[in-house]
Amino acid sequence: MHIEKLTILGGVGKSGQPEPVAEISLKMGDVISVVGSTGSGKTTLVDDIALFADRNTPTQRQVLINGVPAPEEFTNDPSKNPVAFITQHTNFLSDLPVNEFLKIHAGIRRRDNISSVIEETIDFSNKLTGEPIDPENAMTELSGGQTRALLIADAVIIGNSPVILLDEIENAGIHRTKALELLRGYEKIFIFVTHDPRIALLSDFRVVMQNGAMVKIIEAHDGEAKVAEEIKKLDDMILHCRKLIRSGERLDEDIFKELR
Ligand SMILES: Nc1ncnc2c1ncn2[C@@H]1O[C@H](COP(=O)(O)OP(=O)(O)OP(=O)(O)O)[C@@H](O)[C@H]1O
Ligand SMILES: [Mg+2]
User: Fold this and answer.
1) Is residue 108 domain-shared with residue 77, that is, in the same domain?
2) Which domain holds residue 215?
3) CB of 39 closer than 6 A to ligand 1?
4) How far is the CA of 40 from the centre of ligand 2 (A)?
5) Nearest atom, ligand 1, residue 61 CA
6) Distance from the CA of 232 to the center of ligand 1, in angstroms?
């Protein structure tokens, strides 16, 4: 099924009040963020999307694909499910080597040129994280950052999923601005649950959650892209310091002169 549009129809917040945002409509190519304090309902919102909620979850939201409820095959047949959900707590149970794991997935997805698809996936994953993956490594040996990066690459390239949900990638050692740039090269709907100002400001718009409800939609504007640029510089500085500290170096004030 070709997906053009995903619609979220509002339900109720935690105290049963109707959600201030009654409808959100997403088209292919949109990158949006979900923001809000801890416990405000961000994960619950993306869960509703992953479940194709049909007024049958505690939030009573409804998710429509191309204007109608999702066909049952989306939930019954994993290979037809258009949504890839990369959750907050992802651990692999499989101790297969990375390349074997990807090979099996590519086989299930009936992809041609399996070896080049695997190579592309690992390359893409390595662009997202600072720690390149050895394809011979077991899945269980990957770090948190490598795991997230591989799952994103797998969803984008092997799964070719049109809708990708990412629940808080920030703590996982992923190059955020780069990830966003790379992901924008693919015509998909990306929904980021995030506490990261860069991801939020570089999205097309953000949904603000409060007390379990979607309370506001904020469209990005040019000024925010400039703020994001400045944040990126600060963040790169911190990343650089972290890298030096991790590799056992000492830091002094000159480092800021070098970096500016
Ligand atoms: N609309 C709602 N109706 C009823 N319960 C809700 C609603 N939205 C969220 N909840 C409940 O509130 C709790 C917190 O929600 P959730 O885990 O989605 O928050 P979060 O914003 O993802 O938090 P964190 O930042 O800690 O990950 C959960 O138990 C969830 O089931
Ligand atoms: Mg959450």
Assistant:
1) no
2) 1-82+162-220
3) yes
4) 8
5) 1
6) 29
Dihedral pair phi/psi, residue 238, rounded to 5°: -65, -45
Structure tokens at 61: 């939201």
* Cβ 111 under 6 angstroms from ligand 1: no
Number of domains in the chain: 3
Q: How far apart are CA 188 and CA 206, in angstroms?
A: 16
| CATH for 29 | 3.40.50.300
Q: Are 172 and 147 in contact (CB under 8 A)?
A: yes
Query: Measured from the CB, is residue 173 less than 6 Å from ligand 1?
Result: no
Q: Is the CB of 40 under 6 A from ligand 1?
A: yes
* pTM > 0.85: yes or no: yes
- Pocket lining: 14 vs ligand 1, CB cutoff 6 Å: yes
Distance 171 CA to ligand 2 centre (A): 13
Does residue 59's CB lie within 6 angstroms of at least one atom of ligand 1? yes
Residue 141 tokens, joined: 């040996």
In a domain, 87, yes or no: no
How would you write the pLDDT of the chain (260 residues) with one tens digit per residue?
Answer: 789 999 999 999 999 999 999 999 999 999 999 999 999 999 999 999 999 999 999 999 999 999 999 999 988 887 788 999 988 776 666 789 999 999 998 988 877 888 999 999 999 999 988 789 999 999 989 888 888 899 999 999 998 899 999 988 766 677 777 888 899 999 999 999 998 888 899 899 999 999 999 999 999 888 888 898 888 888 888 878 888 999 999 988 887 776 66
Q: Which residues contact 123 (CB under 8 A, 6 or more apart)?
A: none
How many angstroms from the chain centroid is the CA of residue 183?
9
